[in-house]
Amino acid sequence: MIVLILAVMNALTEDEKKLATLMVKNRILSSSGTGFEDLFTTIMRGKYVDFRQVKPQGKKGDRKNDGFIPSTGEYFQVYSPEEPENKKHKSGAKKALEDFKALHEYWNGSYEVKIYNFVLNDKYRGTYAEVHTSLAEIKKGYKIKTHLFDAQELEDLCLELTRTKLESVIGGLPDPDNISLDFSVLNNVVGYLMRRESHTTKADKLNVPDFGEKIKFNNLSDYVALMLNNASLSLHQLEEYFESYGTKGIRDILKTEFVRMYEKHSNDGSLDDDSIFIQILEDASYDVSKGDNGNKGVRDAVLVLMAYYFETCDIFEEPSKTKTT
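== ABC-three component systems C-terminal domain-containing protein ==
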């Protein structure tokens, strides 16, 4: 009975599942190289208690083994180029072959290689045929199972984790019913955003639409709408914070950064408005919260800032009909 109660308490609501999915996608899309390998390892250790990470040892490296499960003889080799559609992605086929040969030569004598997983961060764009044929060549030549482990499969695996382990990957899920603004945390967030590269500040917009009307116009989900609406309750505190500086300079610098983030993700073309919202939330909070992997205070501060620049129409689109202030 106790186990059942805990399971229910830890279960995600449907809205939380949607939000978690967007956050996991963001982690995968924004990770390359060792960052993606670290993400993969965190997810695998959360899912499989006997997953073993192989730490590189000087010039010997990891012997082409980024992790394995001894009980099943399953091995994983991770490859995440910066841009999966360039020539480096095609070289993934060659890497799969060469890395497996080195892996098999070193590891098979100690822990039999039964399954070889080539983990490729294709960033949801699909995989070149050469990678599949290379894995088929390994399967035929070594009489073992081979598997292409792509971004979608990693996402699916991550979403199977318990709530606690999932949050260790993506940080705590924002609680739209409990958003508060801590000025000391806000200082850290503002400092981080102001240090980032900025562009020319755009002129302030004169038309301010109804908040709810703009949410509907941008097709934002009820869950995101709840976060924005509840974050907007702290806007008077944010105004006090801005006024305490005695200048509007900080307000404009932050506006420039949020506009830059919004334009970057809205120009992607593959993201819906909820995804754009989460991308901005993650971009603005991830680095300053690394110490505790996405603490609530940081995300709350960013949500209040997003509500402010949403209300002033600096981020997201204006409805065609607005009221002039």
